[in-house]
Design brief:
Layout lengths: L1 E10 L2 E6 L5 E5 L6 H10 L21 E10 L5 E11 L6 E7 L2 E5 L9 E4 L5 H4 L2 H15 L1 H27 L7 H40 L6 E6 L8 H10 L1 H7 L10 E6 L2 E2 H4 L2 H23 L4 E4 L8 H8 L7 E5 L11 E6 L2 E2 L2
Parallel strand pairs: 3-13, 3-14, 8-12, 12-13
Antiparallel strand pairs: 1-2, 1-4, 4-5, 5-6, 6-7, 9-10, 10-11, 14-15
């Protein structure tokens, strides 16, 4: 995939920006706070995914405005270089505190922006992703969901159905817990919730197991290259269901956990509790890895994600790298820069001199504006 043009309207601090990136490498330079990460974020959102940054969707809209729009012309090399126009619009409600995202392809309305998943695959590395290693499991699950959502539209739908049923069950358990001991949960109603969760949960786990088997192996190989074979990285999938992954096993897990759920006021088992463990030379990376090693682990993970998308779809995703060279030694910087060939890459940095020998196009941002 290639991004041929990008047009932004009222997106964060980028009021009216149009760029024509290089076919291979585009360097986005500028001082901190000028909008470099915002520009990468806008490209990422053309994939149909939510922002990779924390915060509400209303924060995507420029202050004082009620909407923003991202329009990109993309080329699919797999079908003879056909160019399509993708568009994401975020509109705020009357309170200005909530936003909805809609998508279009070639001016045809596709409904919610997530329906564009798979049309323009991207892989993003941002400094925030380093926190994924030692942060809460939610961040690691969000990474898995983002990757699978670009590959399999059916996964996103299964996840939406699961989340809806989970919210209903948790709301009911919470309300019952507040009224105990005078009110006890209705077993038949909980059976109904659990059946829905088991059906969609088994589908989610199946997707995750197949994808993570490939991703874990690729990530370990990528890290071996970055570390020059000096360190060994292992990834382990830690499912949130103790009884197994099929529908019957999930039913059993929910049944065994029911008394615990009732006391807790929420569902304590299921794929919403899944996690990934990172081991560096046999030790937990979140405890023992240095900042540079953590950055290398996430870079390996992202490189493996790109490789998996390519192997599954035949497409080469666009690679987005935000402030990626800081805290990497010269050897690891060279390894990364030498692996950019054959891909369209966008990379941000304060010092464009680091990329002077790459032949890429340099775009300089100042106060949200592209400088001539």
């Amino acid at each position: 995939m290639k991004l041929l043009t990008l047009q932004l309207e009222q997106f964060r601090n980028l009021g009216a920006v149009t760029i024509e990136p290089d076919y291979s490498l585009t360097v986005i330079s500028g001082l901190n706070g000028q909008g470099k990460t915002n520009l990468l974020e806008s490209i990422w959102m053309l994939s149909g995914a939510k922002s990779f940054r924390a915060g509400r969707e209303c924060e995507l809209v420029q202050r004082g405005e009620s909407w923003c729009r991202i329009t990109g012309t993309v080329e699919n090399e797999q079908i003879g270089g056909t160019a399509d126009t993708l568009q994401i619009t975020v509109k705020l409600d009357t309170t200005g505190k909530r936003g909805s995202r809609t998508g279009k392809k070639n001016n045809v309305d596709w409904g919610r922006a997530g329906n564009l998943a798979g049309q323009f695959p991207c892989v993003i590395f941002a400094p925030e992703h380093i926190q994924m290693l030692n942060g809460a499991p939610e961040g690691r699950r969000r990474f898995i969901d983002g990757a699978l959502g670009q590959l399999y539209p059916g996964y996103l739908e299964a996840r939406r159905r699961y989340d809806r049923s989970l919210l209903q069950k948790n709301t009911y358990l919470k309300n019952c817990r507040m009224e105990m001991p005078s009110v006890h949960p209705d077993g038949m109603l909980l059976d109904s919730f659990d059946e829905q969760l088991a059906t969609t949960g088994a589908e989610i786990i199946r997707y995750r197991q197949e994808y993570l088997k490939m991703l874990c192996e690729d990530t370990a190989n990528q890290y071996a290259g970055i570390s020059m074979q000096k360190e060994k990285l292992q990834l382990r999938y830690l499912p949130g269901v103790p009884e197994g992954a099929d529908i019957q096993a999930l039913r059993e897990s929910f049944r065994l956990a029911r008394s615990v759920d009732e006391r807790a006021g929420f569902c304590t088992v299921g794929p919403h509790r899944d996690d990934i463990e990172f081991l560096l030379d046999g030790y937990e990376a979140k405890t023992w890895a240095s900042q540079g090693q953590r950055r290398s682990i996430v870079l390996s993970l992202k490189s493996a994600e790109l490789s998996c998308i390519n192997r599954i779809t035949g497409l080469c995703p666009v690679l987005l790298l935000d402030d990626v060279l800081s805290e990497l030694d010269d050897t690891r910087q060279d390894y990364l820069l030498n692996r950019m060939e054959g891909k369209q890459v966008f990379i941000t940095g304060c010092n464009p001199a680091l990329f002077s020998g790459t032949g890429g196009k340099i775009i300089r941002l100042e106060n949200g504006t592209v400088c001539p």
